[in-house]
């Protein structure tokens, strides 16, 4: 989305056609990628759904289906990232408007694209190194497919992105000879980045690389490029200090990306994103708006209440707020805008509500925390019921206030219209119902439920409403979903690579040690814990934060006389809030990506929700009765 002159923000360019240099070659390349990613997404939908049916009616799963789904997600993510590079959809800081036009601006654009090409070239080499190591192993995906074969998409994907970034260096109105000169120069820079793997490590080189990354970030390089570059530079510094082999150190970043792709619940992200795109393309928003008017229109802030509870519901069953924003953002935002809610409030509501629901069963973060911290899963879920509901209610209450102030229309309740609207939207409302029943009843896992939801959306839009043509429209919808998923997955993987360095450098451990040495009051400890978890929750991926911090925090809570269950709820509630904490809160990035808004704009619009939810987190922290008291009421020990 282009920004107004004089504004600073994060841009996500979404052109309708590919306008990159070497357009003929890229159209051919992206045509192959589009076809392949469409087939893979369809396979990803069918595989877990078929496994669910086989288990229920044949008594056994399809062999290797879950592992194969994870590797398909890896391929979808990298193909989507390649398409995002071709179409300019990667998240980046938009500051070129502040650079004087002409040669300075062209130089700045060349610098960012050349650095991007160099980082991708180095990532391609590091990924190839990872594949080389894996090639000597015997790991299999399924059906005899070797893990190393699946990993090949990583070096190939990064190499293609490096080439495309280099070609982008020649964009502009310059004569053809000058454009190709820029492209050639960018290619030379990329080769230089590739050769860094064999460079003699030194502190001066590391400092220079970090400064280059900072300059590239400020001038508009994609965020995943900056995160990957900084992570590799920091790991490179470890070479200077330990004498480690350069190849082994910089391969840590693609290793982290690969490990992210193999997260068991990750296939739910592309599946639910595809389901949301399909329903949105098929006109579900229009049908749901009518249903919401019929059922909630008489209430002040009725649609805002609905959006809050729906977002919380999806986050509960996916365990990731990113899925909620990506899959439901395109569905809920038009509904809110049509009801005359301000755009800033509407974007802020979807951004904030995407992190609600993490405390309810069967949320994966709760289960992971219980395993890592040694807490009882069932007791932790009971303890999270009231705090989770409290967070939802305070956000919904703010929606009521805004609805009244903005004059959101209210209507007299008409039972006949409500019934007709509900009947018209029965297929659309069936999607969340399907996910709830499938997971809640134990019929399917989260990934299988997401696959069933995607398959359900295909049936509804292709066969029931016939609003999407299977050959003319469906591939385009799936490609758009894949490009968004790819840009997000590559960003999350790069962030996880940077997190790996934080873990190796023992940064979280040092923070905790500092707290124990300076904090002696229980109340002050809880306040400091809120602050630390808020900051770390904004820069660490939630599962990494749980694995790294929970074993360190749990003994501290015991030392201060805090029950393990109450500490667990406080821990997770703070991480939930961290999704909204600038500058690196994950929901802020995802919302900017999903809605095409500058990131500082999203900061401002999500800030009221940050304050409201912070008040809820403080109440959860200092009122143990709503956790421990409820647990005791159920006859359990907190």
UniProtKB/TrEMBL annotation:
Tell me where the signal peptide lies.
none
The question of whether Transmembrane helix is a record keyword is answered with yes
Region entry Disordered, spans: 1-23
Keyword ATP-binding among UniProt keywords:
no
The Tripartite ATP-independent periplasmic transporters DctQ component domain extends over 45-168
The regions listed as transmembrane in this protein's record are: 36-54, 74-96, 108-128, 148-168, 180-200, 206-234, 301-333, 345-372, 379-401, 434-465, 477-503, 523-553, 565-586, 606-623
Q: What are the subcellular locations of this protein?
A: Cell inner membrane
Keywords attached to this Swiss-Prot or TrEMBL record, sorted alphabetically, are: Cell inner membrane, Cell membrane, Membrane, Transmembrane, Transmembrane helix, Transport
> What is the name attached to this protein's record?
TRAP transporter large permease subunit
